[in-house]
Amino acid sequence: MSETSNYGNEAELTRPIEASPDKPIVLTSNSYLDKLTEMIQNTPFDWDYIKAKADAQNFNESGNRVGKSAEIHLHHVLQKASQLEDFQKRLIISPVPKETTTQHFHFHSRKGSFIAKDLDTQQDIAEYDAITQVDGLPVVWEVKTGKRNRSSKKKGDLNAALTNEKVNAILAPLREFFNTDAFGYVIITMPENIFDMSSFQNGFRQRGGILIGLPTNYTEFQQNADIPLEDKLVQLQNKYNQEK
Predict the structure, then answer these.
(1) Is residue 100 situated within a structural domain?
(2) Which domain holds residue 150?
(3) What pLDDT is stored for residue 18 in this prediction?
(4) What is the pLDDT, as a whole number, of residue 216?
(5) Span 154-159, average pLDDT
């Protein structure tokens, strides 16, 4: 679902550290990534743009529409940032070409999703909402808009996405492609899902991961995204209100 790629002058980018099989993967940031995450948190949803994109791509189910609309917002902000003078030579969108093969992995696109396949097992093992390079640092962006369950690590849940096992699995193919141990890793969720006392979230941040909230919430989303009242999103919001 990524928009047009923007390739800056790579000669002027700061290079990440070279990969070593003996080194652990390091999550980090830089000043340009910090600026981007602030933009994503503070740029209001362009609902007309998002609804047009969502309708064109037939995101009809409420749950699917929430996550995909958040991805549209992410790509829209990244694309706008790439046109700013500060980022023109510092931001590369979609730096991994489709149908690229490394020693152990193959990157391909399916139904708008960018995926890494393990060549040994022939299984798809990672799906990416967005990949960028920000001042030379490879950055993975992941959108998780489902309501947080405090203890669940079920596949697809926010908590599962925050674990070292999941992060390492997502980054393994990119580590081979970029030949680096250093990555930015940004998980984007609804602000209602962020809790200071969450051990999953605190562990992710302590490792160097970045967890940010969208500039909206479930109620505003329901009011703006043309989702019928009987849809699952409203049921989810009602359940959330009852548990507060």
Answers:
(1) no
(2) 10-93+130-243
(3) 56
(4) 85
(5) 68
Burial of 38 (0-12, 13-18, 19+ CB in 10 A): exposed
Q: For 4-55, how does the pLDDT look when each residue is reduced to its tens digit (9 = 90+)? A: 333 333 333 444 455 555 678 999 999 999 999 999 999 998 988 888 887 7
Does residue 168 surpass a pLDDT of 60?
A: yes
> For residue 112, is it left (φ>0), alpha (ψ between -120 and 50) or beta?
left
DSSP string, the chain: ---------GGGSPPPPBP-TTSPPEE---HHHHHHHHHHHHSPP-HHHHHHHHHHTT--SHHHHHHHHHHHHHHHHHHHHHTSTTTTTTEEES-S-TTEE-SSEEEEEETTEEEEEETTTTEEEEEESEEEEETTEEEEEEE--SPPPSS---TTSHHHHHSHHHHHHHHHHHHHHHTBSEEEEEEEE-GGG--TT-HHHHHHHHHT-EEEE-S--HHHHHHHTT--TTSHHHHHHHHHHHH-
Q: Is residue 25 part of a domain?
A: yes
Q: Residue 233: pLDDT above 50?
A: no
Domains of the chain: total = 1
Cβ contact 132:95 at 8 Å: yes
| Inside any domain, residue 163 | yes
